[in-house]
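Tutorial, part two.
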Amino acid sequence: MLFDVSKWDARPGELAWKHPNTEISWGAQLIVNESQEAFLVREGKVEGPFAAGRHTLDTMNYPILEKFIELPFKGDQTPFSAEVWYINKQVVLDAPWGTPSPIQIMDAKLGIMVPVQARGQFGVQISDARSFLIKLVATMNSYSLEHLRSAMRGMLLSHFNTLLAEYLVQRGVSVLEIAADTQSLSTQMQERLAPDFGNYGVGLVDFRIISITVPEDDPAVARVKKALAHKAELDLLGTNYVQERSLDVLEAAADNEGGAGQMLGAGLGLGAGLGVGGAMGGAMSQVGSQLQPTASGDQPPPLNPFATASTRWHIHLDGSEQGPLDLQAIKDGVASQRLTRETPVWTKGMAQWAAAGSVEALSGLFTDDERPPPFPGAVTETTPEPSEDG
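Running the prediction step on this input gives:
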């Protein structure tokens, strides 16, 4: 069946369309709308594009058609066979994308795998109609936005997975904290995808990540949320996990029967990295604060080799500085074996930190011999020396 006039009124979501009739009469009219381009395809060869406007197909208007159609002799008016293709170059902004199922991403902050889902939207505009027709449309009768989404899905998800993992590692944030960064991620995704789309004659327009979510009922997600909530609570209270665990140990020991439990229950133990002072009125009464540096240029006075109750000590334990602590707290720390000979200590008058066992005022606390010295005036047994008589 011949056609004399060809025109295409594209519907939403249509990117390319082939006229159903392939028998074209000489002098046929091609009407190309604004934001469209048309092509003739015969035996795999493409001629065009025909821009917006009305085009009369004859060798007078398009001398190249004579060679394209290979006329048997000049001036022949016999109809010829060719495909007429229309390409829609209008910007289409409503192309949705999303992860079909949760993807597993390593949470850089907590070090566990977390399932992540994402969705968004992007727009496209055919930038190179010939390349688009040859590489993507090929022998299909029509090509829609859905065809394009399906063709690009794998590439898009691969880029997104890589970018999200890199972003979490570089920023050191949790998956649950990334919602505020979707705009930055959207920009980076557009930069990564644009060259790949361009290879097929498609321009990528306004790529957007609308949301990044995690399944609420997933056990890994519950662990992450619980850990982040607990960390926020500790930050609010001004403590950390090591200190919290130390307090837990103290509480457990105080509940136990026996000498150690009674001592701790009476307030004689050290907690939160020896941040708790000695007994006062039968209860724990002092929580240490972090060591504050001394003023620049202060000259320490001579150190009294005999520690007194008023001497205040600073110690370095569990990776942090604790103090000031009184002598009773130091004794309690030695008794509970949390403070050892090697524990670094400092008090006013010392030029620098030193191991507790090397400080004269404290070295006596670390004696290995628990027996008391001889009582003054006590009679000691002696072994009589043998007499000369035998």
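The chain has three domains: 2-88, 92-215, 241-294+301-366. In part three we will examine how such features are distributed along the chain.
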